[in-house]
Each structure stands twice: as structure tokens, then as C-alpha cells.
Amino acid sequence: MTRVILWDIDGTLVHTGHAGEIALVNAMAFLFGIETSLHDVDYKGRTDRQIARNLLAKHQLPVNDDTERSFVNAYLTELALQLPQRQGHIYPGITTALNAIEAQNGIHNALLTGNMERGAQLKLQHYNLWHHFTFGAFADHSRHRPDLGAHALHLARQRFGPNLAPNQLIVIGDTPHDVDCGRSIGARTIAVATGGFTIGDLRQTGADAIFPDLSDLQPFLDVILAA
Ligand SMILES: [Mg+2]
């Protein structure tokens, strides 16, 4: 039976050594000469486009499609500069898990992320993971994270057939937003406590399975292969 594993990126696959956060701060300095910080901005599990709008609003700057696009472009330029300068890492077990999934017939790795596609590509190429993913739902499609789940289902059905059932999708992420996003489309959900939310926090979300990380491959595969 076909299954599609929809991976979140930040806090789930990789820690970019704060390259993303620093790129956001630098984009604000580059475009507006404003020194900002993210400590009072709700950004985990949000899309890049929503974060851009939240930052613009925080500094009473105009919030519209043009300013959002300018900010996102500046962010992507900064991100490309920051990634090689930061000490990031792939989370434990990820590479093994991606390879193990690819070795199974009919199971596919894809992305469901608040990153812009270009940002996702920059991050995952830097960590040599980009080639694992056959398609993705990105913030290019919508700035509202909840829309991206339905978009991922749509893309999966285009690829694997209109009869693909929602529970053939498995959403993996590190925040309650990821779990909500997966549940909203009827996907199964796996939460990992690698991104800052604890096992206790994630238990509240009602995720189908919760792991401290993916270093223990078999229990993770068991959840994915379960009928
Ligand atoms: Mg995340």
C-alpha cells in the first residue's frame, strides 16, 4: 500500500544552527535598517511568509503582498549566506530513517513545511538531504500553515492517484502546529521532541506516536508500516 511521509524541516530533520533566525533578523536590518529580535515573535511552526508579516507588523511597517515578498526575498538571500557559517546538524537517526523508508516499496518521502521552496532547498541541500524528497507543500502555496496540509494531500493524489486515502499520509513534525495540520486532513501524525517542545507538550496534541528523536528506527518504522 502506498504511503507518503510528509516531513517538517526545522526542528524535525535539521537544526540549522539558527541560520534561519539570523537570516530573518538580517533581512530586517538589510531592508529597513531596523535591529530586531524574534523573542516576542511567534514563529515556530509558522510559514516564512507569515513570519515575515509578523515581523513587519511588530515594527509598524506596511504589511502587504509587496512588503512580504521583499522581506522573503531578502531572507532567502541572507539564508544562503548564513547556512555555511553556522554549526547546524541533522537530528539523530534522520538519515537512516530516510534511507529505510526509501528501501520500502511504495513508501515515499515528501515535505510539508512552512519554508518557502527555495529556503527548503537551500537548507536541505546544505545538509545533503534534498534528494530524498519527491515533492513538497511549501509556503509558496499559502502563508497559512493549515492550508498546506490539504495542498500536500492534493499533490500526493496527483502523483499517486485520486483514491489515496488521507490516512495513507503520515505527517512528522516537532510542533503542535504540525500535528494539527496533519490531523486536519485525516493524516496520521508523528511528533518528535527534537525542536524544543517536550514529550509532555506533544502528548497534548493527540499525535498518533511521539518519539524523543528517531535514533531508534524500528518503533518508528512500525508506526509507518502499521495498517
Ligand atoms: Mg519544525
Mean pLDDT: 96
CATH architecture of the largest domain: 3-Layer(aba) Sandwich
The biggest sheet amounts to: 6 strands, parallel
User: Could you tell me how far the N terminus lies from the C terminus, measured between alpha carbons in angstroms?
Assistant: 9 Å
Helix percentage:
40-55%
How many structural domains in the coordinates?
2
| Run of helices and strands | EEHHHEHEHEHEHEHEH
What is the tally of beta strands?
Answer: 8
Radius of gyration: 17 Å
The order of strands across the largest sheet is 5-4-1-6-7-8
* Residue runs with pLDDT of under 50 for 5 or more positions: none
Describe the global form.
Answer: globular
The CATH topology of the largest domain is Rossmann fold
What is the CATH homologous superfamily assignment of the largest domain? HAD superfamily/HAD-like
Strand % is 5-15%
Structural class: alpha/beta
Main CATH class of the largest domain: Alpha Beta
Hetero groups in this structure are: magnesium ion
The helix tally amounts to: 9
Entry summary:
The chain has helices at 19-32, 48-58, 65-82, 94-102, 117-126, 145-160, 176-184, 199-203, 217-225, and strands spanning 3-7, 14-15, 89-90, 107-112, 136-137, 169-173, 188-192, 209-211.
Task: Provide the fold topology.
Blueprint: E1 3-7, E2 14-15, H1 19-32, H2 48-58, H3 65-82, E3 89-90, H4 94-102, E4 107-112, H5 117-126, E5 136-137, H6 145-160, E6 169-173, H7 176-184, E7 188-192, H8 199-203, E8 209-211, H9 217-225
Helix pairs in contact: 1-3, 2-3, 6-7
Bound molecules: magnesium ion.
Magnesium ion is lined by residues 8, 10-12, 45, 173-175, 195.
